[in-house]
Amino acid sequence: MNIELTLNRDLTTVDVAPGETLLEMLRRLGFTSVKDGCAHGDCGTCAVLIDGRAATACLLFAAQADGREITTIEGLVDDGFGLAEAMLDVGAVQCGFCIPAMILTAADLLRRESAPTRAEIATYLAGNLCRCTGYVKQLDAVELAIARAEEVTSG
């Protein structure tokens, strides 16, 4: 079955198999930043933006992407906050497995709330598991990105 979607800003037609998940389709198309961590929606490493909202790609059928806008980390040209740079600057990127999904999820949060509290950031990122850092550095990175964005707008 053919579906038409906007994938990382490009209108795309993809042939999908019945029962194929969005995660499987994206991996088949070469988007390796979308990780297959658990295939049950528990770890969050397969997070993508669907029409601007973070969602786990392993829990959706590829056919559900028909007519939608899907963004992977490869397509997140500018999140408006410099989240990737902040992750690097605070040392949050160790193995890197969770980082693409963390950045996409944080970008979703910051589009909704430009100055969330640390507790709100932690709550929003709670669905993205990290086995390396214990989340402190990721929270620090999001706060750093917010602070930098505030400096740019006030300066």
In terms of topology, how is this protein built?
Blueprint: E1 2-7, E2 10-15, H1 22-28, E3 47-50, E4 53-56, E5 69-71, H2 83-89, H3 99-112, H4 118-125, H5 136-154
Parallel strand pairs: 1-5
Antiparallel strand pairs: 1-2, 3-4, 3-5
Helix pairs in contact: 2-5
The domain count comes to: 2
Helix content: 25-40%
Distance between the termini: 52 Å
* CATH homologous superfamily placement of the largest domain: Beta-grasp domain
Topology pattern, helix = H, strand = E? EEHEEEHHHH
In DSSP terms (H or I, runs of 4 or more residues), the helix count works out at 5
How are the strands of the biggest sheet laid out side by side?
2-1-5-3-4
As residue ranges, the low-confidence spans are none
Q: Tell me what portion of residues adopts beta-strand conformation.
A: 5-15%
- How would a textbook summarize the main sheet? 5 strands, mixed
Describe what this molecule looks like in 3D.
The chain has 5 helices and 5 strands. It is of the alpha+beta class. The protein folds into 2 domains: 2-75, Ubiquitin-like (UB roll) (Roll), CATH 3.10.20.30; 83-154, DNA polymerase, domain 1 (Orthogonal Bundle). A 5-stranded mixed β-sheet has the order 2-1-5-3-4, with helices on one face. Strand 1 and strand 2 (10-15) form a beta hairpin. Helix 2 (83-89) packs across helix 5. The longest helix has 19 residues, at 136-154. The protein is globular. The mean pLDDT is 94.
